[in-house]
Predict the 3D structure of the following.
Amino acid sequence: MAKEVGLKEAFLEFAADSAVLNRNGKIIKGKQQIATYFDNQALHNVSLEWEPEFVEVAKAGDMAYTYGPFTFSAFSGEGEPKTASGYFHTVWKKQEDGSWKFIYD
């Protein structure tokens, strides 16, 4: 979904209402703040690739976490390339409707 419609839309689609993002040492709380965070990014040609290497689901079946490598690339408003790579860690919670939404990324 991130490739097809964009990062903001993908993150918001899979974020729980109380989701938290940890970005550059700052905590971004809730879907509204997450939307604002993405709106304030002056980047274009953004690409984010990731793949879970590990998934573990709690015995109760209501919480899980994933981690694996990611690669991010984009261009600033001035055309300067921006890249980052590393490992992501995401915590997921099963919702009342049976869907999974992240609560921490």
Q: What stands out?
A: The helical segments are 2-5, 7-14, 30-39. DSSP finds three helices and seven strands in the chain. Strands lie at 15-23, 26-29, 43-50, 54-57, 63-76, 81-94, 100-104.
